[in-house]
Amino acid sequence: MPFVEIKDLAMAYYRDSQKIAVLEGVDLEVEEGQFVALMGPSGSGKTTLLNILAGLDKAESGSVIVDGQNVGAMSHKQLAAWRSRHIGFVFQFYNLLPVLTAFQNIELPLLLTHLSKQERRDHVRTVLDIVGLADRADHYPGQLSGGQQQRVGIARAIVSDPSIILGDEPTGDLDAASADEILTLLQRLNQEYHKTIIMVTHDAKAAERADVIVHLDKGVLTA
Amino acid sequence: MKIPIIYNLRSLRQRPVSTLTTALGMALVVAVFVSMMALSNGFQSALTSTGSDENVFLLRKGAGAELNSGIARDAANVVAGMPFIAKGTDGRPLVSAETFVVIPLQRVGGGGMANVVVRGVSLAAFDVRRGLEILEGRKFRPGSREIVVGRTFARRFPNSEIGGRINFGGQDWTVVGHFAAAGSSFESEIWGEAEQFMPVFRGQVFSAITFRMSDPANFAGIKETLEADPRLYVDAYQEKEFYDNQGTLLNQILNFLAVFIAGIMAIGAVFGAVNTMYAAVASRVHEIGVLLSLGFKPRNVMSSFLFEALLIALLGGAVGCLLVLPVDGLVTSTTNWNSFSELAFSFSITPRLILYGMVFAATMGLIGGYLPARRAAKARVADALRR
Fold it and tell me: Chain B: nearest CA to A58, how far in angstroms?
């Protein structure tokens, strides 16, 4: 059984009683430990698909099963709890809280666990080492470069050791060199730490780093 | 609190102007509230400390106040012989038959005229009343035109230094001592020998009698005995209760005003808080989206923003309390409506009042923060993240 299994997924927005289809009949299977790039032009529904996978949004119809669990059937409350345990989300614009230091930003997901203060500190130190920012722990996001902020974002995504990392154009706001670093880091997480990664991108060079490239056009997967 | 407090603290520091103006609005409300309560508190404690629950206070039946009362010398002698009166160290009964006259006197520094209580007592009065002490000088000598004055009186009326002469009742009276009476209304009075005041003011009649009970627990029985005695024709009160009741009306008015005025101001301050918190939520919708996406629950977000409103309010409350601290101990005066005489008392800010002020502030913060916090909690993650 695949790690992620999406079946006949449909999603639409309604504007002035007009239905705007975003996703139509999407089927997707991702194996555990795979690195999948999801490509497509803007407006093709990539982010919506990712949000549904992460439980941030609910699909209109179809089913989403991640690691044997039916995400679509969960309540908002269950989704919040499930998200904090199983999903690491990396955003295009990092989405760090500007008033918290890198360390405190990374620690946030751990505040939802029962880890002690010392355990939380150890976890944060570990992921800071992995992303190579051990010496930037006490910097605020405003004091870091874009690439460094994104590495903090990745550290926050992996600190609670989720089974799957979802990236929404994680290199979309970065220069080529920083983007390269981030992609290398994601690859390392995939190969060394066996994280399943699904990454939305419209950059063909970024997509090349993945094992599998899937194309999404006008809400339909074209593979 | 799942969302760390440091997040709220730093967010508040991000917008210092709106945080401080909102807090200042609440500070003013708390300052007004606490100062009015302090006024009421000081007034109450001046009256409360006046009476002791070991003492019985006698007035002519139906008189209700010392000013209207009259007790004949014969009756006073009967009371002095009663068996339930405690004895002093010298073996004499602790009973003080007193005259009570109110006279107008000029205040210090052209503060206008004020009515002052002139109380004629015997030396036993200093023992019957607990907490009475001569601060300066000495007690008056029986048989002489000497008086002692309370310390509050001494601050507010001219010629009240030791050796000064005060003229009333057509005579000059020499001040020989200042006394303290545990902050009670006695400190606003002039005391002299009843036997000296009687011929000057109103003949051979006392106004009231106060005595110490040998067994305070037996007050009910003593009251019954005295009120039933046909030779006396008196009402008996527990002294403390009598003075407490004197203040009740004014106190109720002061307390009502404190709550009423502060309440109206609080409505304004709450709107200020609502505004500030709505602005805070609006500018942080995206951050709320991030928190929700990380798995924080709507109620975590709600309590975080409520807590932030509470922080602003507590800051305001603390500033408000600091603003009013200087008035603590400030002396003011009012007319004691039961004796039509001046009663000086001080603003009294107690830890309990500070607590009330902080609770008041916290309440404003929670009310003002509720709707904005609820809006924050209701944000849809995917929408919030898009902003």
Answer: 10
